[in-house]
From TrEMBL:
Organism: Equus asinus (Donkey)
Region (Disordered): 654-675
One GO process term, biological-process aspect: spliceosomal complex assembly
Similarity field: Belongs to the crooked-neck family.
Name this polypeptide is given: Crooked neck-like protein 1
CC annotations in GO: nuclear speck; post-mRNA release spliceosomal complex; precatalytic spliceosome; Prp19 complex; U2-type catalytic step 2 spliceosome
InterPro entries, per the entry: HAT, HAT_Syf1_CNRKL1_C, Syf1-like, TPR-like_helical_dom_sf
Compartments, record wording: Nucleus speckle
Predominant subcellular localization, coarse grouping: nucleus
Highest rank taxon of the organism: Eukaryota
Pfam family, one: HAT_Syf1_CNRKL1_C
Record's keyword terms, sorted: Coiled coil, mRNA processing, mRNA splicing, Nucleus, Phosphoprotein, Repeat, Spliceosome
Function: Involved in pre-mRNA splicing process. As a component of the minor spliceosome, involved in the splicing of U12-type introns in pre-mRNAs.
Pre-mRNA-splicing factor Syf1/CRNKL1-like C-terminal HAT-repeats domain ranges (all copies): 82-366, 389-505
Amino acid sequence: MAASTAAGKQRIPKVAKVKNKAPAEVQITAEQLLREAKERELELLPPPPQQKITDEEELNDYKLRKRKTFEDNIRKNRTVISNWIKYAQWEESLKEIQRARSIYERALDVDYRNITLWLKYAEMEMKNRQVNHARNIWDRAITTLPRVNQFWYKYTYMEEMLGNIAGARQVFERWMEWQPEEQAWHSYINFELRYKEVDRARTIYERFVLVHPDVKNWIKYARFEEKHGYFAHARKVYERAVEFFGDEHMDEHLYVAFAKFEENQKEFERVRVIYKYALDRISKQEAQELFKNYTIFEKKFGDRRGIEDIIVSKRRFQYEEEVKANPHNYDAWFDYLRLVESDAEAETVREVYERAIANVPPIQEKRHWKRYIYLWVNYALYEELEAKDPERTRQVYQASLELIPHKKFTFAKMWLLYAQFEIRQKNLPFARRALGSSIGKCPKNKLFKGYIELELQLREFDRCRKLYEKFLEFGPENCTSWIKFAELETILGDIERARAIYELAISQPRLDMPEQEETERTRNLYRRLLQRTQHVKVWISFAQFELSSGKEGSLAKCRQIYEEANKTMRNCEEKEERLMLLESWRNFEDEFGTVSDKERVDKLMPEKVKKRRKVQADDGSDAGWEEYYDYIFPEDAANQPNLKLLAMAKLWKKQQQEKEAAEQDPDKDIDESGS
């Protein structure tokens, strides 16, 4: 036991002791080591020498070594299919086809789902003209992976290239049993057509449209028949397609194709019947292309007026059904009116308008009236622009304004449109009367602005002043109105009135208190203003705004603004402005802050120092000295020496005063010490 312990101790390596632990004079980094290795190319191995094989023994030795390398690679990772393929291709290059087959078979045992492996295997057999072997591989591939279309394409192509048409057809039939994608069916059809087998192609189409029953496939089937001159068959295909899809799944493209086919056959009556049948059953939104083609057809071959009458009457019937079902469906009324305006007589259009505006919204809420009011607007515009009847236009406007419940809500648009109409008719008093009535009944910002704009265009500035006064009585919190009023006075050259308007505006209490939802916008405006100017009044106003917002955290935001302003104004030359900011901050902390907050602001307050400076006269000569007060801020780093010097001077002065007092009264000090 002791011997084994001694032997174990002997096997423990000794740790080398480093005598000098000081850093080396020249330090070498990992980057330097890598750079030197790259420069010297230490890791690059020279290429192996070219080996010339002179006899069969050397060749067998080379093959053995190469195969051992490939087998080792495969043994390391069997799932890397590229190693198997390289191995098989190398054997193929040596014409060792049997060995290559063996390798491919071993690889398929590992991963039979690998598409590349099957393709390389089959290509090897085809390159070496091993047709039966290739067929065997393709059969196994399509049996194992029937959904891989590439196998089927390659297999059929090989059979066709070999001239084995029956074999290729058989493969296609096996493929079609799996109901593949559309392109596979087209490949089969094209294969049959290459060999003039039209009947077989027709049979394939019959199966195709049942497996993939899309409209485009039926159309392709019919065009196939038309292309080969079987017009009766093509017509029958179209008719079967119409019957197949029925009324539930009608598609305009099918009817357009059917109609064009009949048009090519000069069967114009059939074309009309097809278009009418489709238009009667397909909704307007889904039949745009159909209607377009029908119109083109009638322009080419028919009586345009007749077809337009048919379409208009059909649409009119549809709209009548819609408005009967829901009289308050104003969108349907708009479409109906657009239709009759384009074709009908004025009396018919008026009748439809009168029926439409009779459907007044049952609830007196503005959101229910927004669509309805446009019926009146369109009616008035029709009477003015199309019917050229100003008197009826005036009656329409007046009737609409009498109908609107102005006590609950109004539509400024109607008042302004009526006023503009009267101006176009050169009836200025009527326009002013209408706008005056609107402001009296239902004042709105938009009405005031429209009336003022009218008077400005007429250069009636006294009327504009009166309107602005009424406007500001109605909405004194509207900043834009004050500004526009002042700008008007400025343009007119009355600066004193403009200044007085601005003074009145800023004295309004509601201007200084934005609504809660406008707080963020006001904050952004302050930030944009501070990008242009760093004036102390802007900072103080910003802080007071945050304080007056009344939201949670307003005190912290206000304090943050003061801190930001103080940092910004450190480099400001106007020290009085900085002092004004600090005084405002101190007042804020006196009211809302804690003791520590107050002390912190007090420490920022400057020292007031009296200084002297030279004064120069206007002619540049010396005019003596003058005294002035300067402020030295504690946190101003540039003035720290001055503050220190000032503090030392005060201390020295205090010490001198105490010393003089002690010298003047020595007896008092002795008495105090004795007592």
